[in-house]
Each structure stands twice: as C-alpha cells, then as structure tokens.
Amino acid sequence: MSHLRVYIAGYSKVLSHKIEMKQFICFLAVVVFVMSCMLAHAADPEKDLLIYLPFDEGDGNKAGDVGPNGFTGDIKNAKWVEGVVGQALHFNNGSVNFDPLGIDQPKEMTIEFWFKPDEKIEGGNRIDLLYRLNGGGRPHITFNRGGILFGFYFATQGVELPIHTTHEVFEPEWYYFVGSQSKQIAWMYINGELDAEAKAGGDARMDFGTQGMCIGASQGNSNFFNGMIDEFKIWSVALTAEEVKANMEKTLAVEAEGKLTTTWGKLKSAAK
What we know:
Blueprint: H1 2-41, H2 45-48, E1 49-53, E2 62-64, E3 72-82, E4 87-98, E5 109-117, E6 127-131, E7 140-145, E8 148-155, E9 160-164, E10 175-181, E11 185-190, E12 193-199, H3 208-211, E13 213-215, E14 227-235, H4 241-253, H5 259-270
Antiparallel strand pairs: 1-14, 2-3, 3-4, 4-13, 4-14, 5-10, 5-14, 6-7, 6-13, 7-8, 8-9, 10-11, 11-12
C-alpha cells in the first residue's frame, strides 16, 4: 500500500508538471501572437501615410504635403506662426482646402494633428476642425454638433457613427488629437490618452478622395475654427495606443530648426 501511495504521489507531481507546462506553452503562444500582431500592425510612413502637412512653409498661400503623395492645399485667411515645433497655421475665419485627393479607400484609417483654439470652447456655435470641401459624408471632427461639445464622426461602408468626448471644456492651449479606426473599433485620443471609443464593424469610409478636404472650416466658408493647427497627418492604418503615444513624444522631441526634414526622418526610422 505504501508503494502505491508513493506511486500515486509521484504520478500526481508529473501530471501537475505537465499541466503547468501546457499552461505555460499556451501563455507563450498568446504572447507571441499578440507581439506578432503588434509588429505587423506597425505603421510604415513609406506606404501607410496618405498625407502629411507639417505647415512649415512660413509664407505664401499653399500648404504642401511632404508625404508620399505630394498634395497641395490652398490657404485662405490664415497666417504663419510658431507652432508646436517649427511653424503652424493660425486661422481667422480661414481654412486650407484640397481638391478631391483621388486616393483609394483605406480599409482602416487614422487622422492626427495638433490644435490650439484662440478662446475657451465649452459650448456655442458649431466649429469644424476637419470637413469635406464639397458635399456631405465623413469623416469630420467638430465642436458643438447637436449639443455635443466635441466629436470624431467617422463611417464604415454601411453606416455613419460618432465618438463623443468626455472632456467638458477645451482651453486655449495645444491639444494632440488622434482619431483611429480599425474594422472593428474606432478610438479618439486626446493628448496621447484614450478619450472614448465606439464599435465600427466594417471597412473605413473616407470621402476626401472624391469630395475634397477642408481643414479649419466646413467646406471652406463656414463653421470656422479660429486658432492654430499643426502637424496634420492621415494614415491608411489604425494606429495603436502605443503608436499614438510614440508619435506624440516624437513630435515634442523635434527641434524647431529643420523640423520638416527631421520629423520625416524620425517617422521613417521608427518604422524600420
């Protein structure tokens, strides 16, 4: 009987060890899977960046895209000022307008930029940070729409959807905005932190390809945002929370001198 007890105890230890090994292997597999997803998801500026407007020209009435597509926008009623780093545009009932971009619909999307309102915003009339140049559609980024202080209004191929801020006021200071949309979920980040999210449930819809794009107003002539905008980018992928924080830190780390070249270099090197 004692030999049987010893045998049973030994077998139990072996069985317990096997179970622990299986649990560890399962855990390791999950870690590898998550890491592989994160690595595969990393944004590549050479192929995923649809438009990048550093607003560093410093004079003139054109805003140049230094990303792969090389778009050019027309500036109305805005002046060049010191921005987050380097130059930015300060709008006074103005906008930057782009003709239809003529790009393919991305299946995912991220919009990111910095903005600073001239005055505190805690209600009032509608103010558009981003809209189409022509017609309706999405995405748009708007203050005071339908009684909501601030929202990222996005769409899938089947439905239009909103994400509403949890902020109660926006002071006259710099904010870093990111709206990121995957096939399942869309997120809104303010200053590198998740503000709110919503279910998506399908491929992204971006109407700038056919309807043009307007920064700082609605269709170039109403709902004006008076304040500064800097470092505007649109990606054809959904940036992760880690990428959002990394992009914010990279922007803040760039010196004012030579910002355009330095920032583009940092974006490309980060993707390698």
